[in-house]
Amino acid sequence: MARSYLFIPGDVPRMLQNMDVFEADAVIVDFEDAIATHTKDEARDLTRAFITKHHENLPDIYVRVNAVEHDDFMRDIDALFGLDITGIVLPKADTHALKRYRETFEKKGEHPLHLIALIETPRACLDMLAIADYPLVRALMLGGEDLTSALATARTNARTEIATARGLMVLAAAAAGIDSIDTPYPVVDHPEGLQADIAQSVAFGFSAKACIHPNHVDAVNRAFTPSQAAVDEARRILAMHEKTGSTRFSLDGNMIDKPIIERAKNVIKQAGIHGRDLP
Amino acid sequence: MKTIVVGSLESSDCLITLQPADKTTIDIESVVYDAYGKRIRHVIERVLSAHQLTRVHVRCQDKGALDYAIEARLETAIKRHKEVNHGA
Question: Which domains are seen in chain B, by residue range?
Fold first, then answer.
């Protein structure tokens, strides 16, 4: 259950070699937007060589390939066969792209790698439940910048333009039982804006957030790890639940029922996964 | 015959320049030449040999690249060289 997904360009050795020191739970090696058309072959060869030779103690690795309709899509997939990676990030994901992706592997007699479906078109937003239900899809990720462009609007500090997509994504992912990953904060050096954006991601109910810069990782990890106060509160709820044997009781004047008990269990689980001290 | 350039002069990278030539020659410029010059030459020779390339000039401007990066940059250069100069 990753909290942070850090994009790093596939054609920069310094970034590949440091992928384990950025402290992101997962990295997404980019073959798409971060790579110029004339250097995509360099990114493929460099990434393949790096993962082949330096595969120990690395975080979960995903690769964002080019979209299925792009000339480089097949070259990207060919470069990844046999590599020890966690999965693929598929841009411009929709039901047609998912079908093409699956068929690509089937034609080669290979088992398809798991996917993070990058949702960045209005149609995909309206098809999110079908995409989330697709068997290969392990998470949905929001591509806020492309979606904003497709809507012919401008990015705002309040991110109003992507609010509907954010809500739909969290619902679709939860309904399908998979993770939802919020779009990265697009400004590298604006800590206040970053914190406000991360707070929105958490409030919407996302499981994790993408990052475009290593400096964003720590704030994202902290925000998606339950606070000590939340852990303490969850412990008290579960202790009272155990003591009373009931799924309906009062604690400090607040009514506690089954959904709140389930949330408390989830807080303890999350805290355990991400290393908060649990006696 | 076209000259191929791959990589960069950024830290931990190298810039590989590949040109057709009458025989194989290798020039290495490296910030760590005294310690790693022989090793870099060995990596380049190994990749050229694997591709059975014997008539090229390779210039490697190294900025502290690890072996995998030098190999990958040269691999890309050779693929482009074959496409451009031999239509492969």
Answer: 4-86 (3.30.230.10)
Sheet arrangement for strand B56-62: B4-7, B14-20, B56-62, B25-30
Kindly provide the ipTM of the predicted complex, given to two decimals. 0.94
CB–CB of A169/A128 below 8 Å? yes
Q: pTM to 2 decimals?
A: 0.90
Furthest-apart CA atoms within chain A: distance in Å: 66
Query: Is A42's CB within 8 Å of B12's CB?
Result: no
Substitution target from B12, B68, B80, B81 for chain A, most A beta carbons within 10 A: B68
Q: How far apart are CA B42 and CA B39, in angstroms?
A: 5
**Strand pairing of A208-211 and A4-9?**
parallel
Q: Which CATH architecture has domain A4-223?
A: Alpha-Beta Barrel (3.20)
User: In this complex, is the C-beta atom of B27 within 8 Å of any C-beta atom belonging to chain A?
Assistant: no
Domain with CATH 3.20.20.60 in chain A: 4-223
CA-to-CA distance for A49 and B71, rounded, in angstroms?
8
CB A146 within 8 A of CB A121: yes
CA distance A36 to B11: 19
Chain B residues lying within 8 Å of A54, measured CB to CB: 68
Search chain B and give the residue with CA nearest A41: B76
CA of A17 to nearest chain B CA: how many angstroms apart?
9
Written as tens digits, the pLDDT of chain A (279 aa) is 899 999 999 999 999 999 999 999 999 999 999 999 999 999 999 999 999 998 788 899 999 999 999 999 999 999 998 899 999 999 999 999 999 999 998 888 888 899 999 999 999 999 999 999 999 999 999 999 999 999 999 999 889 999 999 999 999 999 999 999 999 999 999 999 999 999 999 999 999 999 999 999 999 999 999 888 888 899 999 998 988 988 889 888 888 998 899 888 888 888 877 765 554
